[in-house]
Amino acid sequence: MIKKVTIYDIAKVLNVTAATVSRALNNNKNISEATKKLVLETAEKMNYEPNKLALALKSGKSNNIGVIVPRINTNFFGSIIRGIEDELNPSGYHIIICQSHNDETKEINNIESLINSQVDAIFISTSSKHSEQFEKILKKNIPLIFFDRKKTMDGVSSVTIDDFAGGYMATKHLIDQGCRKIAHLASGDFKIEIFHDRHEGYKQALIDHGIDYREDYVIHTTSKIAEGKIAVAQLFELDEKPDAIFSSSDFLALGAIQELKARNIKIPEEVAVIGFANEPFTNFEELSISTIDQFPVEMGQMTARVFLEQMATSQNIKIDKKVVMEPKLIIRKSSKK
Amino acid sequence: MIKKVTIYDIAKVLNVTAATVSRALNNNKNISEATKKLVLETAEKMNYEPNKLALALKSGKSNNIGVIVPRINTNFFGSIIRGIEDELNPSGYHIIICQSHNDETKEINNIESLINSQVDAIFISTSSKHSEQFEKILKKNIPLIFFDRKKTMDGVSSVTIDDFAGGYMATKHLIDQGCRKIAHLASGDFKIEIFHDRHEGYKQALIDHGIDYREDYVIHTTSKIAEGKIAVAQLFELDEKPDAIFSSSDFLALGAIQELKARNIKIPEEVAVIGFANEPFTNFEELSISTIDQFPVEMGQMTARVFLEQMATSQNIKIDKKVVMEPKLIIRKSSKK
Q: Which residue numbers delimit the HTH lacI-type domain (chains A, B) (predicted)?
C-alpha cells in the first residue's frame, strides 16, 4: 500500500508547521503569497491529494451542518444534537437544526431550506415513508447520514441503535417479572423502521417464551402523555386485561401509569410498565419508570465521527458505514416486582 | 394620508387575481413573459411601492429564518419555536435553529453560521452580556428580533414577558400563604435581563410587604435539578432556615423539592416552593409544582407577527416595537397551604 502524502509531509519538507501548510492550501489571507506559492508547488510535486474535508474548506462552503429531527424538545434528540456539536465544533463546523414534526412534507421543506443554506452535510432522523428527497441530496453531492430513524439506502451511512434488541429486552424483562399478558403501545407508524423493529423484538420475545401474540394487545398511537391514558382505557375494555405494558415511548408510558393510578391499579404488582428512551423524567424519584437507554449523546458523537471519517477519505473512495449501537435495559420501580 | 397602492389595486385594473400579480412581481416561472411585462408596467404607472416582504422574496433570498435559543430541549424554547413555525410557515418561511448553550462565544458563532446561511432574519433569545455582534447583524440589513432574553437596543424589536411581574407575583403568592422567610434561587446571571428582573420583582414584593431582603437567602446557580439540591443544602446550613423558595427555574425547583423530601421536610407546610416556566413535568400529578406560565407558544407567534409586520411596512419606515406579555401565576400543591 502506498502511503498517502499528508500536509505533515509537506510541512516537514518545507520546515514549516502543518498549520501553515493547511492555511496556505486553504488560501488563508494571513499567509503571504510567496508561502502560498511555495506550498502549492511542493504539494503538487509530492502528488499531494487533498482530502474531502480540505476541499470543502477550500471551496468556501458554509462549514454548517444541517441536522433534521422529528422534534427538538425531547431530551433524546437534544442529547443527540449535543453529541454532534461536541464532536464537530472543534473541527470548525457549526450545527443548524430543523424539526419535521413527524411530517413528511415538512421534512422535505427542511431539506430544501438546508440545501438553500448551503450546508456541507445533512444528518437526519427521518419521519418519511419515501426516499426520493434523499436521492436529491445525494445528487447534489451533499453528504447524508441517517441517525436513529433511518432509511436503508446504498451508499448512505447510518448510526442507529438495535431497536429489535431494545423491544426484545424490554419484553423479556416483563416476562422475567412473571407477566404473561403483555400489551404494546406503539408510538409511531410501523413503516418507520424503529417502531417496526421494536414491535418485532416484542413479538419475538413473546414467541420465544411460548406466549401468544395478540393483535388486540397492540395499540397504535402517538408519543403523548394524553394518548397513554387513552390507550390504557382502551386496553381495559378487553375481557382479558393485560398485566404489563411495553411502550415504545416514555411519554406514553407516563400517561399509561397516570391512568392506571387513577383506576387504583397497583404498579408494578398488577400491571408492570416499561417505556423507551430514558427521558430524564423517568428517573425522577416520584416516577421511577423502567426504560431502555439509547445513549443519545454517544449516538450523536458517532454520527459526527462517521461524517469526519468520510470527509478525511480521498474522494474516490465511497464509504457506506452502518453503525448499530446496543441499547441498555434500565429497571426501575414501575416494573420491578 | 395617501392610500398606498397594493397588489389588489393592480389586480383590479388588469382584471387578474392578486396572486397572479404577486407571482409576476416575484418573477415566478409559471407566469408568461407577456403577463409579467404588463404587471410590471402597470405597477410602475400606478407608483406601486413593493413592501419589504415582496422585496425579500424577489431578491432570491433563502426564505429561511434563523432562531437562536440557549437550549432546544426544554418545553419552553421548544414551544416558542413551534409558535414561530405555526405563524411563519404559511408565509413560505422555514425555521432553522441554533443553540448557544448559554455561551457567548457559541452565540457569536451561531450568528456567523446563520449569516453565512443567508437567513432573511434572526430571532434570538440572547445569553450575551455584550451587544457588538447584534450591531453586525443590523449593519448587514438583516432584521433582528429579540424574544424572552433581550438586549435593550434602539431600532430593534423585542417580545418578552414581564419578568419583574413574574417574580413579584410568585413572591407575593408565597407571602399570601403566610411565608416570611422566602429564599430565591436565581438560575442565571443578573446581567441577563430576565434573571435580573425576576430578582427585582422578588425584592420589591418583600419590601412592599415589610419583609427584610436578605442576601444570604439568594442563591446564584444554574438551571439544573442537581443544583437545586445543592442550593437547599446550602440554605439549610443557615441559622434561620427559609420557609419558602421562589426559584427562577422549574428544574431548580424540582431539585429543591427532591432535597427537601430527602430531609423529611413537609412541602408546602414547612417549606412552600414555586418555580418558573410551567415546564410540563411541573404539572405531573406526582409532582404538582406551582410555577409562572410564560405562554411560550404565544410568545413565538407574537415574535413572528412582529417580523411579518416589519416586512409588510415600506422600507423607509423603521419599526421598533417592544411587546411585553403578562405572565400568569399557576398555583399547585407545592405551595398551596
A: 5-59
Residues in chain B closer than 8 A to A81 (CB atoms)? 72, 99
Q: What is the spatial distance between Cα B29 and Cα B230, in angstroms, rounded to a whole number?
A: 63
pLDDT digits (tens, 9 = 90+) for A231-240: 999 999 999 9
Mutation for B interface: A113, A115, A118, A287, most B CBs within 10 A: A113
Does the pLDDT at position B62 exceed 60? Answer: yes
Distance CA(A84)–CA(A89), nearest Å, equals 8
Number of helices followed by number of strands (H, E) in chain A = 12, 12
Instruction: Give me the amino acid identity at A103.
Output: D
**A 172-201 near B (Cβ less than 8 A):** none
B209-226 pLDDT, tens per residue? 999 999 999 999 999 999
Model confidence at A2, in pLDDT bands (50, 70, 90)?
A: very low
The reply to whether residue B117 touches residue A287, judged by beta carbons under 8 angstroms, is no
Asked casually if ipTM beats, i.e. exceeds, 0.85, the reply is no
All structural domains of chain B, each given as residue ranges with its CATH number in brackets, are: 7-50 (1.10.260.40), 62-160+296-325 (3.40.50.2300), 163-294 (3.40.50.2300)
CA distance B261 to chain A (A): 10
What is the bridge-based pairing of β-strands A328-330 and A291-293? antiparallel
Query: Has residue A54 got a pLDDT over 80?
Result: no
What residues of chain A lie within 8 A of the CB of B99, using their CB? 81, 85, 95, 97
A289 vs A273: CA distance, rounded Å: 7
* Helical ranges in chain A per DSSP H: 7-14, 18-25, 33-45, 52-58, 75-88, 104-116, 132-139, 163-176, 193-208, 225-235, 250-262, 296-312
A chain contacts of residue B261, beta-carbon cutoff 8 Å:
285
